[in-house]
Design brief:
- With 319 residues, this protein is of the alpha/beta class.
- It has 2 domains: 22-194 and 283-318, no CATH class; 199-262.
- 48% of the residues lie in helices and 15% in strands.
- The protein is built from 14 helices and 7 strands.
- The chain has a 7-stranded mixed β-sheet, sandwiched between helices.
- A hairpin with a 2-residue loop joins β1 (45-51) and β2.
- α4 (115-133) packs across α5 and α5 packs across α7.
- The longest helix is centred in the middle third of the chain and has 19 residues, at 115-133.
- The radius of gyration is 22 Å and the shape is globular.
- 34% of the residues are buried.
């Protein structure tokens, strides 16, 4: 066992015995075909999309899916260490009010992080929840029957825009009924999306070596501005900067009309009570990455990654 080559040979022989069809996407597709023969309440893999250069696998634990209808908020994030290669894991986490704890109810495996890919991801999530639970998932601002106050993620625009696209695609908002006149993606995200403050601060800290203390502290203070005058002065301050690092940072922030409002209570269109009842950062889901890595391995093949969490969910649901 001290010989690296011998260890690799042993692992390869075990893998060949356990996975005669291989451990790539074709093997995942065959596993999905097996899942489709089961009752909806027993399925774990709910869709596999393979088109052009985009591979997406949507998995949801059916025993946990019902809980999302009682969740106060959802949180999403991507982690990059579980699967070997270009495929990453994207998690859907909810907060359970009754148990006062976080729970990951779904995992998506994707080799793309574009807006188009996230349209497929979000639509697959909403469709799977509808099929499993028999109920449509929506946000409280669009449907009084819903308990979902908002969604929290990092400042990557694609996943937020993909969510907005799917809300329009699935006609989740009916302006003439609820009075929320959102017919564009940017307008929709103003009412439901919060960007993680920790990620915002990380971006500012990357500028620390390139600006003086006064500029650094000014940039860092945006989420805490309260008046329209303060916010206008902040815009003018950033717009007037001659520092190329600050210019690039500011260009990213204003390229998404919903991004700055998703960081500041005074700018958001989200109900302020909803804002106060949802987290300001993605620490709960970041912590789940560490917890997962303590239970499961990293650098797995795609089939092993998908199946390992299926087993993990099975153990969880039996305890």
């Amino acid at each position: 066992m001290v010989n690296n080559r011998k260890r690799r040979e042993i692992l390869q022989s075990v893998r060949a015995a356990n996975f005669p069809d291989g451990t790539g996407m074709k093997a995942v597709l065959r596993e999905f075909e097996k899942d489709k023969s089961r009752n909806i309440g027993d399925r774990y893999i709910h869709s596999v999309i393979m088109q052009a250069n985009m591979d997406i696998i949507i998995t949801i634990n059916p025993d946990l899916a019902e809980l999302v209808h009682d969740a106060s908020w959802i949180m999403v994030d991507t982690t990059f260490t579980v699967v070997h290669g270009t495929t990453n894991e994207w998690k859907l986490l909810i907060w359970l009010k009754g148990l006062d704890k976080r729970t990951v109810i779904g995992r998506v495996w994707s080799n793309k992080a574009t807006r188009e890919a996230f349209v497929v991801v979000w639509n697959g999530i909403f469709e799977a929840i509808k099929l499993i639970t028999g109920k449509l998932l929506n946000f409280k601002v669009f449907s009084k029957k819903s308990s979902l106050l908002g969604a929290i993620g990092d400042s990557e625009g694609a996943q937020a825009q993909g969510l907005g696209d799917v809300i329009i695609l699935r006609r989740m908002n009916t302006p003439q009924v609820n009075g929320i006149p959102t017919v564009t993606v940017d307008g929709i995200l103003l009412f439901i999306w919060k960007t993680c403050l920790v990620h915002f601060k990380r971006g500012v800290f990357k500028l620390e070596a390139h600006v003086d203390d006064y500029v650094f502290n000014c940039l860092l203070g945006f989420p805490y501005l309260e008046t329209s005058e303060e916010i206008a002065a902040y815009h003018d301050f950033c717009q007037a900067s001659k520092n190329p690092k600050v210019q690039s940072w500011w260009a990213h922030k204003i390229s998404y009309p919903w991004l700055l409002p998703s960081l500041n209570r005074s700018l958001t269109q989200m109900n302020h009570l909803h804002w106060d009842l949802t987290p300001g950062d993605t620490n709960p889901i970041e912590g789940s990455h560490v917890q997962d890595n303590q239970v499961n391995h990293t650098n797995l093949t795609i089939l092993e990654a998908v199946l390992s969490y299926n087993i993990f969910y099975f153990i969880y649901s039996c305890c």
